[in-house]
Amino acid sequence: MPISRNGATVSVSLEDLDFSRKPHLGKNFEVESETSDSLVPVTRPLYTVEEVLSWTPEKDGLRTDVFNIATVPLAERTQKQGGVPKTLVCHDMKGGYIEDRFVQGLRGDGCYLLSHWQYIDTFVYFSHHFITLPPPGWTNAAHRHGVKVLGTLITEWDDGAKRCQQFLRDQSSYRSLADKLALMAQHYNFDGWLINIENPLDGTQVKNLQCFVSYLTDVMHTAVQGSEVIWYDSVITTGELKWQDELNDNNRIFFESCDGIFLNYTWKEEGLQRSLEMAGERQHDVYVGVDVFGRNCFGGGGFNCNKALSVIRKQGLSAAIFAPGWVHEKLGADDFCTNQNKFWSLLSDLCPMHGPASLPFVTSFCQGQGQNFYINGQVASRGPWYNLSCQQVQPTFTSAQFSQEKDQGGKKTMVLCTKDSFHGGGSLLLGGTFHHGCDTLSYRLFTSDIPVQCPLLVSYTYKWESGANQTAVHLILHTSGQDK
Predict the structure, then answer these.
(1) φ/ψ of residue 196, rounded to 5
(2) Is the CA virtual torsion 395, 398, 399, 405 positive or negative?
(3) Are 40 and 33 contacting, i.e. CB atoms less than 8 angstroms apart?
(4) pLDDT at 364
């Protein structure tokens, strides 16, 4: 093998090359599986204050974490006029960083995902590690639907108290940490932080904590447009760890220092009334916690979360739904799709709905997994796979729409199909029966508010199932305003 070096040619044989040596790629890579030596990129948390303060986008001139940077910008979405209560989802499942930590996906199925983004405003990736960085697959999927993604800072127990002693020691300490957190969010392309201090503090630390939250909020707003910092209802102004389950004088200084407060789950309705009064014009920045596992939570969680959400919306407050992965973690993977659809359909009337609001708009309805991977309707790779970055925009409407309208054409269904796809791993399967005298079956797909100021090219691809009665298929766009 001839190699040119400084104008000279040197002969090198394959025997001279050592293929057993692996490059040092840092902690952002893992062995793919027990049966493979291949190294693949992963997302991981940061465990100590020192690790955060020493973090930089580059190590030794190499961007070894480049795979962890989300690539999808935050999409525009429809918004209700006058402001409406918001819905935050806090994803806590089996400690975090399970299958979703593999940023290029993995071979397999039965993994957890979210597809009901139309009801969600903010998604928090949560774990019990000091600094939780969202895996880019979640950020990419959420951003395609216009949903903001937050990481988590949490301190707990004796270890948490020691970390607080470090970064709340003085102004320089807390500003150094906040500057790093803002840089991380900007670098990895996510939208802010949930702050959860679950250990007692002394008086000086409480004062510095309030300053830290305020300063972090300011630098985040500068670093990432539209970013959010949310405070979790935990320590109070005295430094005690004492969950309030409401917004009051004990935690108001933290609420006033950031973009919102996530209330603990064991609230009572009268406490929500007091929270509403104290929040004033910022009532939609109060996120009332709902634990889907039902731990001392109003309504008992599970499929009864709509009971808690009904009380929250009665007060005009926002909601924070904690651990919706319950449908997978508790009820299992076999009926996951059915159970997840049931869970969100029970909440659908209580969550303002959002849809696409910008061009270009394209989707294959893939949810980020499939039995095979397809390109232009042909199988490109066989076998089950999972990769949230491949998730496409999901319909605003689900099959629940058919129970809310007078059916003109018999029973209709609209479900995800993973047996066939145009691109990715899934497609939208529409089913129904024509009745005598009825020649139309209609399905609502999206609510949207897309400005169109020039000629618009619209294309769509469909395929009939074998044995189906074939008829004409049309895509109908409803327009509003003077120009139609």
Answers:
(1) -135, 105
(2) negative
(3) no
(4) 96
**82 DSSP 8-state letter:** T
Alpha carbons within 13 angstroms on the beta-carbon side of residue 160 total: 18
**Average of per-residue pLDDT across 48-59:** 91
Residue 370 bridge partners (DSSP): 385
Identify the helix (H) or strand (E) that includes residue 211. Answer: helix 203-223
Token look-up 């394959």 returns: 14
Whether the CB-CB separation of 323 and 291 falls below 8 Å is answered with yes
Sequence letter at residue 141: A
Residues 6+ apart with CB under 8 A from 422: 364, 374, 376, 377, 461, 463
Q: How far apart are CA 451 and CA 358, in angstroms?
A: 7
167, 249, 264 from 206: Cα distances, Å: 12, 14, 19
Q: Are 237 and 253 in contact (CB under 8 A)?
A: yes
Q: Half-sphere exposure of 111 toward its Cβ, with a 13 Å CA cutoff? A: 24
d(CA 305, CA 204): 39
- pLDDT tens-place string over residues 191-229: 999 999 999 999 999 999 999 999 999 999 999 999 999
The 3-class secondary structure across 416-440, one letter per residue, is EECCCCCCECCEEEEEECCCCCCCC
Question: How many angstroms separate the Cα of 249 from the Cα of each of 200, 282, 426?
Answer: 18, 15, 50
Asked whether the predicted pLDDT for residue 14 surpasses 90, the reply is no
Orientation of helix 171-188 relative to helix 157-167, angle to 10°: 100
125-156 burial code (b ≥16 CB/10 A, e <16)? bbbbbbbbbbbbbbbbbbbbbbbbbbbbbbbb
The backbone torsions φ and ψ at residue 9, rounded to the nearest 5 degrees and listed phi first, read: -110, 125
List, in sequence order, every residue forming a beta bridge with 379; answer none if it has no partner: 374
Do 450 and 356 meet the contact criterion of CB atoms below 8 Å apart? yes
For residue 160, what are the CA distances in angstroms to 127, 130, 164, 174?
A: 14, 8, 6, 15
Note whether 185 and 224 are within 8 A (CB). yes
Q: Pseudo-torsion of CA 22, 24, 26, 32, nearest 10°?
A: -10
Query: Is the preceding peptide bond at 23 cis, omega within 30 degrees of 0?
Result: no
Task: Give yes or no for a contact between 160 and 142, defined as CB atoms under 8 angstroms apart.
Answer: no
Strand order in the sheet with 369-375: 106-107, 378-386, 369-375
pTM comes to 0.92
